[in-house]
Write a structure and sequence with these properties.
Shape: elongated
Number of strands: 3
Strand content: 5-15%
Largest sheet: 3 strands, antiparallel
Number of helices: 4
Helix content: 55-70%
Structural class: mainly alpha
Distance between the termini: 110 Å
Strand order of the largest sheet: 2-1-3
Length: 155
């Protein structure tokens, strides 16, 4: 392509854009015909002898275009805040669970096979503090064994 052809093409494109922009701001006319029907047109002559009124069209405010962008940004910020709050809550729950586990481990360790731990287990079973590992309640047999262990290992 030669330079002049490119310049002519560019000028033609600019003129086309100019006409397209002016067409988007066309004037709109409104009139009511003899039958009482309301009509709208871009040409004033379409009304004939009827009273013509120009309709004013206001462009949308610039803030209307900016609002959705702000809206999704606000939603993103709120989402991130909720994520942080959830992480903090999860960390707090994990810390509480760890503290609870540590507290339970500080309690008498029943796994030691000595008289002190057996005595402590027997007393805890009888007081109701100790339960089965699976969560089952202690029964009469458990209490009978605990009574026997208490009399044997607690001195």
């Amino acid at each position: 392509m030669t330079r002049t052809t490119l310049q002519h093409s560019l000028q033609a494109a600019c003129l086309a854009l100019l006409f397209a922009a002016s067409a988007s701001h066309a004037e709109i006319y409104k009139w009511v015909d003899a039958n009482g029907k309301t009509h709208y047109s871009e040409k004033k002559d379409d009304a004939g002898k009827a009273k013509v009124e120009q309709v004013k069209i206001k462009p949308p405010p610039e803030s209307a275009n900016a609002a959705p962008a702000q809206n999704w940004q606000d939603k993103e910020i709120e989402f991130r805040k909720r994520q942080i709050e959830k992480q903090e809550a999860d960390a707090k729950a994990a810390k509480a669970a760890k503290a609870s586990a540590a507290k339970q481990s500080e309690a008498t360790d029943y796994r030691n096979d000595n008289d002190v731990s057996r005595c402590a287990l027997a007393k805890d079973i009888l007081s109701g503090k100790a339960v089965h590992g699976n969560g089952a309640k202690t029964d009469a047999n458990d209490r009978a064994i605990a009574e026997r262990d208490k009399s044997t290992f607690c001195r």
